[in-house]
Hints:
This protein is of the alpha/beta class. The chain is 54% helix and 12% strand. It folds into two domains: 252 residues, HUPs (Rossmann fold), CATH 3.40.50; 95 residues, Tyrosyl-Transfer RNA Synthetase. The chain contains 17 helices and eleven strands. The strands form three sheets. Strands 3-4-9-8-5-6-7 form a seven-stranded mixed sheet, with helices on both faces. The chain has a two-stranded antiparallel ribbon with strand order 1-2. It has a two-stranded antiparallel sheet with strand order 10-11. Strand 5, helix 5 and strand 6 form a beta-alpha-beta unit. The longest helix has 25 residues. The protein is globular and about 70 Å long. Tryptophan (TRP) binds next to strand 5 and strand 8.
Amino acid sequence: xxxxxxxxxxxxxxxxxxxxxxxxxxxxxxxxxxxxxxxxxxxxxxxxxxxxxxxxxxxxxxxxxxxxxxxxxxxxxxxxxxxxxxxxxxxxxxxxxxxxxxxxxxxxxxxxxxxxxxxxxxxxxxxxxxxxxxxxxxxxxxxxxxxxxxxxxxxxxxxxxxxxxxxxxxxxxxxxxxxxxxxxxxxxxxxxxxxxxxxxxxxxxxxxxxxxxxxxxxxxxxxxxxxxxxxxxxxxxxxxxxxxxxxxxxxxxxxxxxxxxxxxxxxxxxxxxxxxxxxxxxxxxxxxxxxxxxxxxxxxxxxxxxxxxxxxxxxxxxxxxxxxxxxxxxxxxxxxxxxxxxxxxxxxxxxxxxxxxxxxxxxxxxxxxxxxxxxxxx
Length: 378
Ligand code: TRP
């Protein structure tokens, strides 16, 4: 039976029915055809496509057709810098890197320090700017091409974004914003304006092309936005307005949410045990994985006899989402878990080893990224 769930840019909770979300949001399911075409263009497979971790889209066919015709496209994604980056945040970024490698195109990455200042009572502008810098290290540690990547920290890059944000804001009424985002009379007025700032980078590639000397003024740079599906409401607004402004509607490709170690719901920054941060030490990683919610049984004897349930097991889900990209190995492990051949202790140790190795490497790259920050922050 379907339970209640909530997915908005400000709240994700409950047991999410992704098919219902596609219907409610009016997006399109990602098909085998899309997966095959992207993997063909990229020249390699991607487990996040094959396992339907990316599952939904808007106008992806148009974007891919444009790419095949002109090869001039751009990617846009972002991060709300309200605290340290956790594994759930990295996942869409790794996918975005796969797309940047495939399309050899610019990436516009937005750090919405303004958003997090406006929406979080506990954060000052100094805090959100500080998190913007810290989080940018994680972004670049993912391996984006520094020559093709621009990070916009909103309060710093606002001069580039503001003219477009203004054009957008003039065409979004309060009643639309209220209907899409659920604002109340008590919402601060910065919150209400904010969606126009998040729209701006989606229009910027075409706007920049039009400003170039010699440009005819009707240049189009198709934009694809890889993001978790909770960001779609923003881009619904963007797409409506883009058309009114004579810009192409940005395409989107949506991911499901990275599982929480605490069980159902997405990995949440507000429950410290539910998430692994990129800066966690080996000891902390092992402790968190050790306490993870699993699909096991109350006793070893029962688990041997009845087997575990990988569907609800956060350890199995971590392997599926990120840490066991080899399909054959994953299948074998999940089968053995279901049969009671693998118990939780062993499964947790297997995952913890993978996370420890991965983060040791990430932390190294994160330090090296200090050298390129100056170059990529706009
Ligand atoms: N609002 C997003 C967040 O809170 C950050 C963001 C800005 C973003 N632009 C984006 C996310 C584009 C995905 C795509 O995380």
